[in-house]
Amino acid sequence: MKKLEIGQRAPEFCLPGVDGKDHALSQYKDKKVVVVMFTCNHCPYVQAYEDRLIAIQHDFAGKGVQLIAINANDAAGYPEDGFDNMVRRAQKKSYNFPYLRDETQRTARAYGAEYTPEAFVLNSRGELHYVGRVDDNWQNPDKAKFHNLRDAIEAVLAHKKVENPVTHAIGCTIKWRM
């Protein structure tokens, strides 16, 4: 599987959300930055980052940034990642961003996603400017030295080059269907 490369245009998708609506990447074309985040329910890394992702959406929403979370995990092997549990998780945590189900795993494959969580930061033209981790300390947000996702969002908003456009995502591997 080939990962989307910096500068490439992100593939379109249209996926069902926990809000009962379908969400397409193209419906966010008015945003200055879109963060496509591959995530899930069961991964302890995702759970550790959830509050940070909610804070990022809160902090940047007024600046034209939209985070979109996508769960592509195989729910047969990981029932906690099934759609009904996604709905419950989003409600419990009060997600302020769409949480979408990639049942076929086509979207995750098209992006070359490997981990949960893994961020893909796109500019207003849908071109990839950053892929990788949220920050460098999943266990303790106060001890993170590098806030890669926030820095990437700020660089794209300022029309500047992202300093470290590719980092290794810290998390669980996506659970592919057999």
What are its keywords?
178 residues; alpha/beta; two-stranded antiparallel sheet
Write a brief structural summary.
With 178 residues, the chain is of the alpha/beta class. 25% of the residues lie in helices and 21% in strands.
What does this structure look like?
The protein is globular, with a radius of gyration of 15 Å. The protein is of the alpha/beta class and 178 residues long. The strands form 3 sheets. The chain has a 5-stranded mixed sheet. Strands 1-2 form a two-stranded antiparallel sheet. The protein contains 4 helices and 9 strands, in the order E-E-E-H-E-H-E-H-E-E-E-H-E. The two termini are 15 Å apart. The longest helix is centred in the first third of the chain and has 17 residues, at 44-60. The protein has helices at residues 44-60, 83-93, 106-111, 148-157; strands spanning 14-16, 22-24, 33-39, 65-71, 99-101, 115-116, 118-123, 128-132, 172-173.
